[in-house]
Amino acid sequence: MASSTTGKVQVGDKAPDFTLPTQDGRMVSLKDYWGQQAIVLYFYPKDDTPGCTAEACAFRDSYEVFKDAGAEVLGVSSDSVAAHQKFATKHRLPFLLLSDKDGSVRKAYGAVSVLGLLPGRVTYVIDKEGIVRHVFSSQFAAEQHIGEALSTLKAEK
Fold first, then answer.
1. Residue 27, φ and ψ in degrees, nearest 5
2. pTM recorded for the entire structure
3. Beta strand spans in 17-155 (E)
4. Catalytic center at which residues (predicted)?
């Protein structure tokens, strides 16, 4: 069940800015990256579940490739800062996990629930100017999000 676009935010839109806490409690805003580097913003259902762990570890294993392509990876779920910290430490994740406790950022992007049950798994590739260049949604092809994001970044260069 994959589609290239879903939800409210579409390719060509300005990415909605937000400020959320990271796994170490620091506050991070999307606009902090604008003018500096591209962002791969991925929404996932829950820390330490099989699909989410596979996805996070695939992003981890390709992290240097993302950095070389001029992009930072940010993961977002409604898990707590403490849960993110445990998940990031356990799997040696080199990128930030952001805690969207109330789901407001997920809602703003339109990364909505699948069948009203699981929070959606959606990846947005956002260029240096804050413009969305690619949207990929697939609940079950977690690791495919990495390839989709890298292909977009390489095409943008």
1. -90, 130
2. 0.88
3. 19-21, 27-29, 38-43, 71-77, 96-99, 122-126, 132-138
4. 52
- List, for residues 13-22, the tens digit of each pLDDT value: 999 999 999 9
Q: Right CATH number for 2-156 from 3.40.50.720, 3.40.1280.10, 3.30.420.40, 3.40.30.10?
A: 3.40.30.10
* Neighbouring C-alpha atoms within 13 Å toward the C-beta of 61: 10
**pLDDT tens by residue, 79-94:** 999 999 999 999 999 9
Lowest-confidence pick of 4-13, 47-56, 94-103: 4-13
Whether 57 is a known active-site residue: answer no
**Looking at 15, 30, 52, 97, which residue is catalytic?**
52
